[in-house]
Amino acid sequence: MDKNVQVAYIHHSGFYVKVDGKLLIFDYFSDHADKDERDKNIRFVSEAVHDASVEQVFIFVSHGHHDHFDPDIFAFNNLGKKTRYILSSDVEVDKPLENCYFIDPYKDMQIEDLQISTYGSTDEGVSFLARFNECAVFHAGDLNWWYWHDESTPAELAEYEQSFKEVVEKIEGEKIDIAFFPVDPRLHEYGYLGGEYFLNKLKPRTFFPMHFWERFDFTRSFSKKAQNSSTDSRIYTIDHVRQSFEVVL
Fold it and tell me: Regarding the domain with residue range 4-248, which homologous superfamily does it belong to in the CATH classification?
């Protein structure tokens, strides 16, 4: 049976997934220097929480970097829905709420019917695989093939590649319906490496680029390039912040 899933790109690496009475929010972030955009993002997510179909809210933070962990997420705890926070263990919170769960890499956690597995990162924190009702959602956090060719030695570049492929190898074999993965233009032509490798090895049904610093054109060029490789995944492009997608699984 087909499953209709609403996916929304919020900003940077932030997405939400709404399906089967659940709202999963990953790495929500707004630039606090831009009050107008910050207010729009808060309203956008708050509207999703208020949706009558949503019964449970799960908010994920992959690591403590400011562009992945935004304290504004704790405002969503007061919107009248059953809300849980799943935070990487490196995230520092002044006064953790009772509904905060902290998790290390390569751990499993069950919250009611939501099964959460974490994998490693090639930067800080964790990557997430969340499963429920035969739906599996992967958010990479800062897991990527960080090929900083203009500032790294050959030995360092080889180490970055090995570290990334070792993590991917641990994920291999897992079913992934929806994947969120970095496609970073700061790496220039090497910004495609991690995403292409991820697609070819893990073969998610759908793939959303992230961490592209509002270079929406980079998501389009990545899609064209990746579609020429051996993958059956549906690769989405993103045109603007707060963009919604209807995904059929």
Answer: Ribonuclease Z/Hydroxyacylglutathione hydrolase-like (3.60.15.10)
